[in-house]
Amino acid sequence: MSKPKTTLKTKAIDRKRISEALLADRLGLNEEWIERWEEGGKWREELQVPDGLPDFIRKKYKKGEIEDIGKEVERLVAAGCRRRVVYFCLAQLSPEATRLREGVEKEPVFTNEQEDAVMDTEEKRGLAIREDLEAVANTAKAFRNKIHRYQRELFLIAESSNYRLPVGFECRPKTAIEALDLLQDSLTWVEALADAYTAPMETTLLKSKGLLYLTLYVSMFADTKKLLGSRPSDFTRDSSKPSETVVARRTLLAGDPLTNLAVILTSRHTDGKDEGNEQKKPKHTEWSASDLHRKLADFKEDHPRLYKRLAEKLKELHDFASQ
C-alpha cells in the first residue's frame, strides 16, 4: 500500500503574480488570434477579427457617430494601420468584451436542434477571497486522508469489479493502486493551490483595459506625422471668391483619431427613451492622447511580460493582414 500523502508547505502567492495570470486570461493573451487548421493535407489560416465595424457600433450609435467612427478608422488606415486589425481593437471596446473581461461566465444555451450552442453571458461571478478557498483546501485534505485510510478496501473493490480506471491527458494508470495514488497526488496539488491563493484586486485591475489594444496598436504602426498632418484648419480659403475671403469649412475631424475613437466608444448610451420620446444623449468620457499613452506606459511598467505578449500578438495580426 502507498504511504500517506504529506501536506505541502505553501505560502500565499504574491498578488501581482495572480493579477498577471488573471490579466493574461481576461485579455485573451492565452488564446490564438489567428485560427489554424489542417485541411486536405494543407495548413489553413484565418484571422479571428471582424470584416467591418463591429456590430455593437452599428446597433448602439447614431448614423452621424458611425460616420465619424468610419472617418477616424480611415485616418488610421491612411497612417499605416491595417483595417481589420483596427476593427479587432474596436471590438475590444464592446459591452460584451467588457463583460467577459469583468468575469461573466459563458454558459451554453442549445438551440431546438440541440446541435449548435449560443453563449449566455448574463451571470457574473466575482473572484473569491482567500478565506473562500480555505474550504477547498480543507475538503481536499480530508478527502485525501479518507482515501488513504480506506485504500485497501477501495483496492479490493477495484480488483473485483469492472469499473474502468481513470484516464489522464497523457497516460492511464495501469493498476488500481496507481489510480488511487494519482487521485491523492491530485488532491494534494489542489490543497496546495487553495492554500496559496491570494485574491487580486479585480475591479481596479481590469478597469479601461479595452483601450489597451487600440492604443498599443496605433503606437506601434501608425505614422505619427501622417496623423498630425491630417488635422484640418478651421478655416480654408474659398478659391471661387476673392483671395482675401475665407470660409469656415471642416473637411476632416480635427484632433487625434485615437483620442476621438476613445471618446466616442467609451460613451454611455441609454437603451430607453425620455418622456419627450427622444433618445437621451450619451455621456462622454473625456480622454486625451496623454491619458491613453500614460495608461499604456503604466501597463508596460507594471506588467512588462504581458505588454510584450500583447505587442507580439498585435504584430502577428498586423503582419497577417498585410499579406
Question: What do the pLDDT scores average to?
Answer: 77
Distance between the terminal alpha carbons, to the nearest Å? 61 Å
SS strand fraction: 5-15%
**Shape verdict:** elongated
Characteristic terms for this protein:
single chain; 323 residues; mainly alpha; 2 domains; 14 helices
Would you mind describing this structure in some detail?
The protein has two domains: 32-127 and 205-321, no CATH class; 130-196, no CATH class. The protein is mostly helical. Strand 3 (107-110) and strand 4 form a beta hairpin. It is built from 14 helices and six strands. It is 51% helix and 8% strand.
Structure summarized in a few sentences:
The chain has two domains: 32-127 and 205-321, no CATH class; 130-196, no CATH class. Helix content is 51%, strand content 8%.
Question: How is this fold's topology laid out?
Answer:
Elements: H1 15-26, E1 34-39, E2 42-47, H2 55-60, H3 63-78, H4 83-91, H5 95-101, E3 107-110, E4 117-120, H6 130-149, H7 151-160, H8 176-196, H9 202-206, H10 210-221, H11 224-229, E5 235-237, E6 246-248, H12 257-265, H13 289-302, H14 304-321
Antiparallel strand pairs: 1-2, 3-4, 5-6
Helix pairs in contact: 3-12, 4-10, 6-8, 10-13, 10-14, 13-14
